[in-house]
Amino acid sequence: MELTDRKKQILKVVIEDYIHTAEPVGSKTIAAEMGGKISSATIRNELADLVELGYLEQPHTSAGRVPSPKGYRLYVNELMEQQRLSLAETERINQSLQMKMEELDRVISQAGKAVSAFVNYPAYITAAGRKKTVARRFELLPVDEHSCIVVMMLGDDRVKSQLLRLQLKVEPEQMPGLVNLLNTNFTGISVDEMNLRLMDLSEQVTPQLFLLLSQTVAYAVDVLEEAGQREIVTAGAKELLKLPEFRDADKAHQLMSFLADSKESLPMPEEGPMKILIGPENVSEALQNTSVVVASYDIGGDMRGLIGVVGPTRMDYASVAARLAGFADGLTRMFGKQEGLPPKEDTKT
Amino acid sequence: MELTDRKKQILKVVIEDYIHTAEPVGSKTIAAEMGGKISSATIRNELADLVELGYLEQPHTSAGRVPSPKGYRLYVNELMEQQRLSLAETERINQSLQMKMEELDRVISQAGKAVSAFVNYPAYITAAGRKKTVARRFELLPVDEHSCIVVMMLGDDRVKSQLLRLQLKVEPEQMPGLVNLLNTNFTGISVDEMNLRLMDLSEQVTPQLFLLLSQTVAYAVDVLEEAGQREIVTAGAKELLKLPEFRDADKAHQLMSFLADSKESLPMPEEGPMKILIGPENVSEALQNTSVVVASYDIGGDMRGLIGVVGPTRMDYASVAARLAGFADGLTRMFGKQEGLPPKEDTKT
DNA sequence: CTTTAGCACTCAGGAGAAAAGAGTGCTAAA
DNA sequence: TTTAGCACTCTTTTCTCCTGAGTGCTAAAG
Fold first, then answer.
1. Among chain B residues 3 through 32, which have CB within 7 angstroms of nucleic chain D?
2. Structure letter (DSSP) for residue B247
């Protein structure tokens, strides 16, 4: 038996109906929705075929049909109509991204909330550099005898700085030497190498200078390690509670716990502008009954971010995909504009 | 009719039982729990009195009794036994706060999560300075002809920095003058004054210098404004779903929306180390059926933070209060230790 | 005057049974 | 191949009845 066009037609109607009602769809409804040209009996025959082919499922003998993951997959691949956002909507999306360019963290978390609010599903978002960042330049600004400010410029143009309380007194004259030491030995290398380099130097400089040096390097290592971590922010988990499939508090709790605690295992596709994972296509146990739509956006430099939306398998793929694409665009454009202005992130203490 | 000691005794038993079972408490249970010295009939008489006095309520004629807000209030004020945390528990709390002293934001959000996980209720946390921060010192580090690094030291010892793309070329020789201008004119004053000062200077310096100046000051204003904002982080909203009173998805959704969106209206008592707000004592509509326990902690300097826990009115006040106090202590101690080390927060871009 | 036993009464919640309704699958005719 | 017709299946809803926890009152005992 093969998948005729009419079968696909019917599958599409079933899915789109089910997406909105969350109720099994019956033959009569379908017939009506298809313009009444074909009788419900014919539809029934087709439905039986679609079940046999694995695109639909039947909760119990005398209920309507529900799409299977395989059905959704076909829908997403072939049947779904690319949805265009209205101008007004695009406008609203961009407006929600209109914020003062603050720290990356904050922008990201804002955007995550906006996405979630737009699609009415929980969302997650992250920004991650592809390469490890290195230090590019150090500066030390004396404050008083026991403290100075370390300023550190990273490979990706971010600047981090902090007040450093020194464990011992330092003469201002020593500073230039120290800075020089830092810039010649600790720029452009990885954290591991930094630690090695520090050990090497331990015998070449005075103990006093070494103490200062290691304090500064320790700070640098902290910063670089933190910069390398991809932080994942989730937003709008509460949206789940509106969905009939999560009215059961236990189910909702389970998924919300997963979203809150196991962020690392959220889908993070390596490539492509958009990826849709349906039900069992997800690796994580907790996502077996949910679908995930992920889009990527550019932050400039070698940075790239991901925004994802989590919902039930019957989520409104067309709408979510369109909006997510809108956001990805908006973010890319937003970071693009910043090119030549404060780069990606802000410094830290 | 007056509130005898025995009545208080009984009230206490009712409340403590109800806290754990969430079921109306009957006279027999109470009699048993009080050691069987008094018969259930006597208890019934007392219960009737307690209802009349407004400390208890009766869901329907033939159900047990449930504490009223007034009852909880009495319990919290007089009846509740100060709970002491076990050493192990204190240990665990402190351990959960054992983290690298990173940016304040991050510490706060971590601590919020920890609190929520400990008490099994949603928590919120914030850190707020009492006074407005000012800039204390500026530095500019040239990078290339079109960019330099602004470093800014705040009144509370934090350091913020960012790479600034300049709208026009600058000779390195101009830098010292600019820095001097900044340090003499823009330190120690409020944001409003900064803007005024900038206008004044517009006529006194060359247009080119003024452009640079305003770019830098704009950055400073951004930083100071952000520093003045109290950010409120909420954590563990999902805990609600475990409670019988929020098994109803709508109720849970309502409160979670409130926690996510209307953070400003969460109780922020101005003084006292700990405050308990029961049901209708809360101002916010959405909190009418919940209780809130808030504790404050010191961050050093003129900074003070608040941690709060939101739960049903039947929340385990004794336990929550004890743990919250433990966390407040832990945080205060933690920030105290940092005295003389990196002060409160980290810099921003 | 307080406490207690006894007892009728109330009412929410659960178990079943019955009815309703939606939808199917099959048969036979168009 | 499509369609009308119809019996059948199974969930969902409604209703009724029953159970049991818990009360409030009365009357006796302390």
1. 24-29
2. -
**CA closest to D8 C1', residue:** A62
Q: Which chain C positions come under 7 Å from a protein C-beta?
A: 3-6, 9-12, 21-27
Q: How far A301 CA lies from chain B's nearest CA (Å)?
A: 15
Tokens of A209: 């200078």
C-alpha to C-alpha distances, B109 to B104, B113, B233, B259, nearest whole angstrom: 9, 6, 6, 15
Task: Label the pairing between strands B290-300 and B303-312.
Answer: antiparallel
CB-contacted nucleotides of strand D (7 Å): 2-5, 8-11, 20-26
Dump pLDDT digits (tens) for B41-89. 999 999 999 999 999 999 999 899 999 999 999 999 999 999 999 999 9
Residue with tokens 């204390």: B136
Q: A99-108, A321-330, B138-147, B335-344: lowest mean pLDDT where?
A: B335-344
pLDDT tens-place string over residues A142-189 = 998 888 999 999 987 889 998 888 877 888 888 899 999 999 999 999
Residue of B139, B151, B249 with shortest CB distance to A241: B249
**Residue B65 per-residue DSSP state:** B
Determine whether the interchain pair B249/A238 forms a contact, defined as Cβ–Cβ distance below 8 Å. Answer: no
Radius of gyration for the alpha carbons in chain A, expressed in angstroms and rounded:
27
Interatomic separation, CA of residue B6 and C1' of nucleotide C5, rounded (Å): 21
- DSSP string for residues in A239-280: GGGGSGGG-SHHHHHHHHHHHHH-GGGS---SSSSEEEE-GG
At A308, is the secondary structure helix, strand, or coil?
strand
Judge if the beta carbon of A5 is closer than 7 A to nucleic acid strand D.
no
Residue B54: other Cβ atoms inside 10 A = 12
**Cα separation of A130 and A271, whole Å?**
12
CA B208 to chain centroid, in Å, comes to: 45
For residues B318-336, b (16+ Cβ closer than 10 Å) or e, as one string? bebbbbbbbbbbbbbebbe
